[in-house]
User: Fold these one by one.
Assistant:
Number 1:
Amino acid sequence: MKTILYIIQKEFKQIFRNKGMLPIIFVMPIMQLIILSNAATFEVNHIKFGYIDQDHSSTSRALIETFNASSYFNVIRHYPSENLASSAILRGDIDVLLNIPLYFERDLQKDQYNTLGITINAIDGAAAGVENVYVTQLIQRFNTRLKVELTQTSDQFVQPEIIETIPLFWYNETLNYKTYMVPGILVLLVTMITLFLSGMNIVREKEIGTLEQINVTPIKKNQFIIGKLFPFWVIGMGLLTVGLVLARLIFNIPFLGSLPLLYLYTSIYILVVLGMGLFISNFTDTQQQAMFISWFFVVIFILMSGLFTPIDSMPKWAQHLTEFNPVKYFVEVIRMVMLKGSGFSDILPNLLKTTLYALIMNGLAVWSYKKTN
Amino acid sequence: MSITVTNISKSYKNVEALKDVSFNVKSGELFGLIGPDGAGKTTLFRILTTLLKANSGTASVTGFDVVTDYKDIRNCVGYMPGKFSLYQDLTIEENLNFFATIFNTTLEENYELIKDIYVQIEPFKNRRAGQLSGGMKQKLALCCALIHKPKVLFLDEPTTGVDPVSRKEFWEMLKRLQQKHITILVSTPYMDEAALCDRIALIQDGEILQIDTPKAMISHHKKDIYNVSAHNMYQLINVLKQYKHQHSVYPFGAFVHYTDSRTDFNMADLKAYLESKSLSEIKIEKTLPTIEDTFMELATT
């Protein structure tokens, strides 16, 4: 026990003396949290909108006025010809183009039916989908108004009222994306920092040769490993705390669930990450190699965690693959506990899976750590 | 016997690092392993300090087998690897305390043993190891290797890259440690250090060439050795190598060491030959053999 305590003390000394590492551990994650949480948005706003009005009728003007009034479409431009409009899309001046054909109003009144051409820049498919929904909604609203006007003028039978839905958004009433993103980004930061640090740490001793010196001492390998990894466990928990405080103070994210429950889960989760870090450092010879392998895993874990893209919309095989992703479990748990106020029994399946993961990962890591080579 | 090595062989992929090596080191002996870079010295050290397993053969340290009793060995040996491998970002004192703790001891407990060495670096005890000079780093590493009062000390090229004054001091320290009944196995590529050991083993390409006391090793030298010099040393070596009676020719400090294949060698003959090859300022004199001459003799035959 005395030995472990001494190693822990020594590790902390080394961490705090490393002038290059200290800001990476404490300042960078905070900056990332602030920057990413403000920047990583799924909302589609300020859509660059343009139109071609060949009709120049009161209906076409009213239609354009509808877009003008919408807060989603803010840059409205008129193009006299299709050629000019398509080169504007090519240049990136506009992303959505509405083409109102000649005799639009006349045909609409005559046939009670007409079509409109919408062109959307779909390089970003997700954004294009959202833009399409906005455009469709606006035109539908315009349509209803038009129908009322038409039914008043012509003596047709009265159409039934349209069914309207009134949604209630639970757990995030204002659909604030930050409420959704901040807990996830916090998971990302805790994972990244603890994995990188633990992955590079033992390799560093290998690189500078101290590991060889230590291997000729009677120290037991579990003493050494615990002593080396415990400081990073503390740093991980510290990062979570700092992140939660920032989430509350800067982003005003609600915390509905139990704080001890989140800490309980995180304390086990970090063990998984540390085990992984140790495992990586056992199979690498330099910090550079360890860094590359850690990055490889972190990128896969983050993209398949449900942090940015929902797991439900992934293909089946990818969904099965996410079962092996510890980050996925943490993202689920932190969102459940913070936003839904889930209790112990709700997160129990994730807690058990994470515990199992921690046991397997650390078992593998300790097994593969050899004092001889 | 403090260290016994019996028929140890070790190979890495295609390289045979040690070929059937056997030797013994007596208790309290200062035993030198002398050989050029790549001779297999470090491999042997790593096997004896339980860091590496041999392909075949057995070895024991203080009676413990290096494979089965590795835990006991780790308790009673001190190892100083060739590369400085202490924590550069910890101070002298912190490094010492760290190694004391992992050996379950304290700096005070065995202070007597390291006192002589420690007093030299004590004024800098709050300086980080990375900022020490080469000689001080080496003293610190020796202190760390001695902190738990080991019975056997393994020193892998401790004086490589160290200035001549520190080298001399270092060997004096080893002599003092020997008086405290510590068996020392030390390796070095410097032949001049060999004379300071009780016994030495000459090693090359993974094979032990000869084991003996430095004195005996020199006296075994059969041929007379001559220091030869001329105005152009490079030309001199080439010309000597073409001489039909030459036995061996190799540079040695400011001279060329020459041995002749004949029993009735005559300096005047050689001088005449060299002059005929348009060499000037020729000096030839008989000299006493050194360990290096023995090594060259054994290594080339």
Number 2:
Amino acid sequence: MKKLLAMALAAAMSLSLAACGGGDTPPAASSKPAGSNPPAASSTPAPADNGDFKVGAIYITSQNDVAGYTFQHHNGITTAMKDIGLDPAKQLLIVDNVAENYDDVCKAIDTLANQGANVIFGISFGYIDAMNDKAEEYPDICFSHGTGYMANETNFNNYFGRIYQARYLAGIAAGMKSVETGNNSIGYVAAYNTEYAETCSGINAFALGAQSANPDAAVYVKKINTWGDENLERQAAQALVDTYNCGVVSQHCDSAQPQLVAAENNVFGCGYNSDMTEQAPTAHITAAIWHWNVYYQTAIEAAMACEGDASKFVEKMGGNAYYAGLKEGFVDASPVNEAVAAPNTVAVMDAVRELIKSGEWDVFTGVKLSYNIADGKVEIVKTDAPLMDNQGSEIVPAGGPSVDDGVIKGSMNYNVQGVQEG
Amino acid sequence: MKSRQPLFHVVKRDQAGPGRQLAAYVAAVVLALAVGAVLLLIQGVEPFTFYRQLITMGIPGSRYPWRSVENFIKLFVPLLITSLALALAFKMRFWNIGGEGQFIMGAFWAGFAAMQLGETLPRPLMVLVMALCGALGGGLYGVFVAALKVKWGTNETLLTLMLNYVALYFLQYFAETKTDWNFFLDPGSARPKFAKFPANAQMITISIGPFNLNLSLIIAVGLCVLLYIYLNYTKRGYEIAVVGDSPNTARYAGMKVGRIVIRTIFLSAALIGLAGAFQASSAGVLSTSITNDVGWTGVVVAWLAKLNTVGIVAASLLITVLQYGCQTASTTYPSIDANFANLLQGVILFIVLAADFFTRFKLVPRGRREAVK
């Protein structure tokens, strides 16, 4: 009886939440449970010719999650579909809980193809071979693979974002906080470090951002060897505070535990994936976040523009590897929690955000930033200096151009100066 | 003292007629579907449409119906063979719940052969070698437990259960260890991932128009016939039943019980290993989730069918329809995820098993016990 009541309550809640959803809230902030089936959700009715366009998605966990990786992607896809005028309740096909198993992914793709999907998104890295092979087998369907590196010239692309740019911004906030508190130790709970370019480029960008605001900042990395485990995340964060007396704790892992630990220890933190100020209002400054809907809208529109000829998909996407950043609004730092942040944090982050957006400068170059702040006005000072790794080797000479995108995405395997794995 | 008695007693019914049993099953399925319909309605899904898609598995009106049939066969064959093999052991009252481990070992050794010899051997020979390696790998993994039981009377339930995890972590070790000697992995990938088998190590299929008939289906059907004959019309098959009923009777009749146990368990585990090898070569790659839980589902199938060979064919067919149909139907509803589909399958199975129980037993309330006697 109790369970029935709980179920009825849950149903009522999801309906009422869905009813007040909509509007331009960014995906990370929306707390609408995915998959509820509101009658009046799509304010813009789908145009008649879009009515039979179907979006297929393959998820690593469930679309009914309330946080985490799949949740972010599902939110991105549904937001994008609604913005385009597609109805996710009717036009979104999902196979969920698909392990990174070649055969299972192939079967999931067959199912989606059979149900009439026009474009298929696979969100997890291990789907790569199956998507590559099936793109060849189904030339009339557009395939798009998140975090991967394979693609073809017609109907198969991959997508990922310059999240390192957002981490640089978060690093600035952390660095400024460390100047304010006089504690140069900054902690970083990482899923992995140099094993994956994705994680170590994030650590490096965060450290460079912190050093731009506080040249003496030291970043201590504690890795947990899994993408998400609430207990390990908590322990690692606590260890960083206890061992290195870290005053700011950043993270590359799934849950908000490191931020909660920061709050419990009266220190500060920078989150990841979603704005964690809600979870840790007394500690959290800003988080590096994704706006997946930016990509999904671009990709779905491109697939629709193919008008049935999926071989034009890569051409319509302007290339087979989508790699966008701050400029396109694909990644960003979440709104700064000004009650916690050091003074002028917003102004500095805004200035650097504009600089990166302009394309004049990027994180992994031979030019370092520093800031002169007077009366709330920020002047960015650029200094030519080599990019060094923490073993003393030079990665980019002073004044040199950015590290190659391919390295940032796929093969970066070093930490920059000032990073120490503990 | 009477109040200390339990509220109900479970009492065996007199032999229920086949008509009554059938009626119980039908009632159970109807009840299960009704419960499922309520759950679906709570999720905002129209149950009739959902059930229609479940039963048809989304095949009518789909773009590539033959793909659905192929994928259905890929799910069906491993479950069928594993259930048959488990029934063989259960008939002897040897509680082999190590199907998962034996399946993984079969797949692993088939994969080993594929990665080592796939480039050199021609395809029919390669598939045969993989099948033999898989059967041997699975068989030895199972016979190890049988030998311990025969020699020292160890508990096979515990041992087979634990060896499931040993096998899983063994495979996981190869899945995640990126070193030069690990030939299972794709050398081209920075992150560890299993490499695909060479083309010659892919399961043979027979093209019928656009449809590719997986050879393993034909072999599985053949195995069903052979096992039916083996169990019902051969001396060895009869020995299994006798040992299952009473090892002492078997011994008194002059049967070598230990030898029968070892022989039968090797056969059972080898068949499961063979299923693993077929699964690996049909998929063309290894994975840590290769079993699709057939080692567990197979136990349910075997008991649902009361270890009867024909019954196992029917039960594994129905369960595959349920599994595959649930997945296909839930695809079209964003609110229905795989967890819900699993829940629905669980509800249906649970109610059917309960009905099976109540055709054989009844509950008698406290106090009326004497009256029954």
